[in-house]
Design goal:
Order of helices and strands: HHHHHEEEEEEEEEEEEEEEEEEEEEEEEE
CATH superfamily of the largest domain: Kelch-type beta propeller
CATH architecture of the largest domain: 6 Propeller
Keywords: Kelch repeat, Repeat
Distance between the termini: 19 Å
Number of strands: 25
Protein name: F-box domain-containing protein
Largest sheet: 5 strands, antiparallel
Number of helices: 5
Number of domains: 2
InterPro entries: F-box_dom, Kelch-typ_b-propeller, Kelch_1
Oligomer: single chain
Strand content: 35-45%
């Protein structure tokens, strides 16, 4: 267990800004507030740290480095409850202590499996995640919500046979553990998914017997429930999604008709529960990421250029990727410290990870990174906690 004594720590006025905020009502600690509430029952109350108000005790726990959280979760039920809650992230954000780690799903050397590994902003490898529960899958979706990684649906492989899955599993980055969430309404794989306004949306993909889907649904983490929403106009698979300014954008992929239809962008507005279309999309995207409120992607027919979409004016611009050697090089993306990482799949010897900084002065956007993966990158997510 981490060794610290909150009562001996001398807090400055700036350090105690969290408690000041509570006192002034921004973060209300009254009985009517769920935020910073004490773990009370009708007949029993156990303080988080004896001798300290719970808001101060929680602040003390939030000061501990992130890598100690899994051990702290085993101290008591109230510690574990706090560490797995959104409250912890809010407190750490107020204290300026959020740590950004990159979670990368890499292919094993033998090509027969994969594993999640964790990398910090300096390129240091922290640990490997416990294996994902359930059967081996392909075509699943990954989304980050409240410091947790959700692995959604996919094509389950059981006894060599694949079938669409509705399973959803959650990895808690603070407790280093997996748990199962509610199943989706429709089993699917190779679909689009993204977080918008604290909700997770899943759209299209393939369903049972390989049928292409146009249906969509949304997950509410507060109720642990999936709800069917209005479908898109046409089936869509191998597509992807992202959220901009409170709306869901579904791009790329294919439909039952012609490849040209995938240039349509399906946009969902949660407030009105409606879809509309844009015609300025992209086709057969092999990598995508959202950074600095813009979408970065690479299309299958043009692996040497970044396509950058600005949702504010629905415009695209192309940026050449400074690579030499093989013209067949394929990239996967990662995001760390506000920069885009380009991991080469089946990289040639001596390849160094490329880094694109959208905030750099013109002409200096491209650099190289010391981050090197232990295997080919299948996908990655960034989690702040």
């Amino acid at each position: 267990m981490p060794n610290f004594d909150c009562k001996k720590k001398k807090f400055s006025a700036s350090t105690m800004c969290f408690s000041d905020t509570v006192q002034h009502g921004t973060l209300n600690s009254s009985k009517n507030s769920s935020f910073m509430s004490s773990p009370k029952t009708d007949d029993y109350y156990s303080p988080i740290l004896p001798g300290l108000p719970d808001d101060v005790a929680k602040y003390c726990l939030a000061l501990v480095p992130r890598f100690s959280f899994p051990a702290m979760g085993g101290v008591s039920k109230c510690w574990r409850s706090f560490i797995k809650s959104k409250e912890l992230l809010t407190v750490r954000k107020l204290a300026g202590l959020l740590e950004e780690w990159l979670y990368v799903l890499t292919m094993l050397d033998d090509g027969k499996g994969s594993r999640w590994e964790v990398i910090d902003h300096l390129g240091g490898k922290h640990h490997v995640l416990p294996p994902m529960p359930g059967p081996v899958k392909t075509g699943f979706g990954v989304v980050v919500l409240n410091g947790k990684l959700l692995v959604i649906a996919g094509n389950s492989v059981i006894d060599g046979t694949g079938c669409a899955s509705a399973d959803v599993y959650q990895y808690d980055s603070c407790l280093d553990s997996w748990s199962k969430l509610a199943d989706m309404n429709v089993a699917r794989y190779d679909f689009a998914c993204a977080e918008v306004n604290g909700m997770i949306y899943a759209v299209g993909g393939y369903g049972e017997n390989g049928v292409s889907l146009s249906c969509a649904e949304v997950y509410n983490p507060e109720t642990n429930k999936w709800t069917v929403i209005e479908s898109i106009r046409r089936p869509r698979y191998n597509c992807f999604a992202c959220g901009f300014e409170g709306k869901l954008y579904v791009l790329g992929g294919r439909s039952n008709f012609t490849i040209g239809n995938s240039r349509f962008v399906d946009v969902y507005t949660p407030e009105s529960h409606t879809w509309h279309e844009m015609k300025n999309g992209c086709v057969m995207v092999t990598a995508h990421a959202v950074l600095d409120d813009k979408l970065f992607c690479i299309e299958w027919k043009n692996q040497r250029k970044l396509s950058i979409f600005n949702p504010k004016d629905n415009s695209w611009k192309m940026v050449p990727i400074p690579v030499t050697g093989s013209s067949t090089i394929v990239f996967q993306f990662g995001i760390l410290e506000g920069k885009l990482l380009l991991f080469a799949v089946d990289a040639e010897p001596g390849y160094r990870t490329l880094l694109y900084d959208p905030m750099a002065t013109p002409g200096k956007e491209w650099q190289t990174s010391n981050i090197k993966l232990s295997g080919s990158c299948l996908c990655s997510v960034t989690i702040k906690a």
